[in-house]
Write a structure and sequence with these properties.
globular; Growth Hormone, Chain: A; single chain; MFS_trans_sf; mainly alpha
């Protein structure tokens, strides 16, 4: 009976993340490819646009603290998860026409695009902190390895499914086909999030709510900027917090520099159509699934350290990226599929190990705050990855400094180097030393902020 309850809980937590997987996949394998390669939009504008919501990731810390203290109908996570998912999904209805405007280099369309993606970023910051906090609160440390593996497997499956559906609905680009594809987003997101979270969270009592409110700063509720100061104060005083933040930031940079330009790489270096570059998502996604499911099974049998899992995953990602660099520089298309498979295997292992470590690197009563901090590191890494990759494309390739094959090869090589550096930082991180951090240090940070 206990195993059945665990399976149902894990499945529902996974459903909660399907919508996010679908939305991020559409942005990073379809919207980018169509805007840059099919419509001729400036690459740095498109990739910065895709990365914009990540730069708003400091909101994750704010939403983490906000939802810690302000439940709705006694629920601190569920209402925020639902609201953020549905709101973000509705934005996708406007993106096909935005892509056309970007291709026409329209200033109005560019402003509209940045405004919509800014809103998307605020909503996904709420979603990230709330959903990760919910996962941390309804699972035990022993369960988390398997739960995280299954959740991320589901997220990647949703990305693979979205790529498959896009290949059917839009084998080649047309405005009508793109609109039809994006119109599915609110339906898929709303249905899956409601099935996933309704009834999963236990409401808190009025007495528990009163105690939460008593933890608020004396000078009123801190806003996003004040919360950012609290987070940076904790990083200054605790080297484990600082080191783990740097690890997450660099590792995400190492993984996702290719994310916004992978499909344009296939189009510009090898002349591949949309239906073929959409298969890139399926190739690395399949590898990630194998990695996560495999390590999920192994970690349930053998006591494998989360740091070891993340390390092996990071090295696998670096190896796959090195192969992509070779493919670009030597114009060997046949290397792409095995490279993406190896990179995916590494991403699968890394996701399980790193996310499980994030959930351990928290302090009781402040889960939302710390999950927000780690989410902020992820967001900044993703944001910088998009901007740097797009800037590199515009300066090196569109500017005519190097050929597309050399430009993409340089980006893939830089990614591999960053991932190796991140793994070096990870080796010095200790969850046990981090646990020496007490609630008093958080109170001190709040007091220092109030006095400033």
């Amino acid at each position: 009976m206990g195993l059945l309850r665990f399976a149902v809980k894990t499945f529902r937590l996974s459903l909660m993340r399907v919508g996010a997987g679908w939305m991020f996949a559409l942005l990073t394998f379809n919207f980018n490819r169509v805007s840059i390669s099919d419509l001729g939009a400036m690459a740095v504008i498109v990739t910065t646009l895709i990365g914009l919501h990540h730069f708003i990731s400091f909101f994750q810390v704010y939403w983490g603290r906000f939802t810690d203290r302000y439940p709705i109908f006694g629920l601190r996570r569920t209402p925020y998860v639902i609201l953020s998912n549905v709101g973000a999904a509705l934005i996708f209805l406007a993106l096909p026409s935005i892509a056309v405007g970007l291709g026409e280099r329209s200033i109005i369309a560019t402003i509209e695009a940045f405004a919509l993606i800014f809103l998307f970023g605020v909503l996904m910051a709420m979603n990230g902190s709330s959903s990760n906090a919910l996962i941390a609160e309804v699972t035990t440390p022993k369960e988390r390895g398997a739960v995280v593996a299954f959740i991320w497997a589901t997220v990647i499956i949703s990305g693979i499914v979205s790529a498959g559906i896009s290949r059917v609905i839009m084998p080649v680009y047309s405005p009508e086909a793109m609109q039809q594809l994006y119109n599915l987003t609110p339906i898929i997101v709303t249905v899956t999030v409601l099935l996933g979270v309704i009834g999963l969270e236990k409401p808190i009592s009025k007495e528990e709510h009163r105690k939460l409110l008593e933890q608020a700063p004396e000078k009123g509720e801190a806003g996003p900027l004040e919360t950012w100061r609290v987070a940076t104060g904790l990083m200054k005083r605790n080297p484990q917090v600082r080191g783990f933040f740097a690890f997450v930031l660099l590792a995400i940079l190492g993984i996702f520099l290719q994310d916004a330009i992978l499909e344009p790489f296939g189009a510009e270096v090898f002349g591949m159509p949309q239906k073929d570059t959409a298969a890139f998502q399926q190739a690395w996604g399949a590898g990630a699934l194998l990695g996560m499911l495999g390590i999920g099974i192994l970690s349930s049998i053998f006591p494998i350290q989360k740091k070891t899992i993340a390390t092996l995953g990071g090295l696998g990602v670096a190896g796959g990226l090195a192969m992509l660099m070779i493919s670009a520089l030597t114009l060997h298309r046949e290397i792409i599929s095995p490279a993406l498979l190896i990179m995916g295997l590494g991403i699968g292992l890394f996701n399980v190990g790193a996310l499980a470590m994030m959930m351990e690197m928290t302090v009781e009563g402040q889960t939302g705050l710390y999950m927000g901090m780690w989410g902020m590191a992820q967001g900044l890494g993703n944001g910088f990855a998009n901007v740097i990759s797009g800037l590199g494309h515009t300066v090196m390739i569109e500017g005519g400094l190097v050929t597309p094959s050399v430009g993409y090869g340089l980006v893939f090589g830089l990614e591999a180097l960053l991932m190796v550096l991140a793994i070096g930082i990870l080796r010095g991180i200790s969850v046990q030393e981090f646990k020496g951090l007490t609630r008093q240090e958080i109170t001190t940070a709040l007091a220092m902020d109030a006095a400033s």
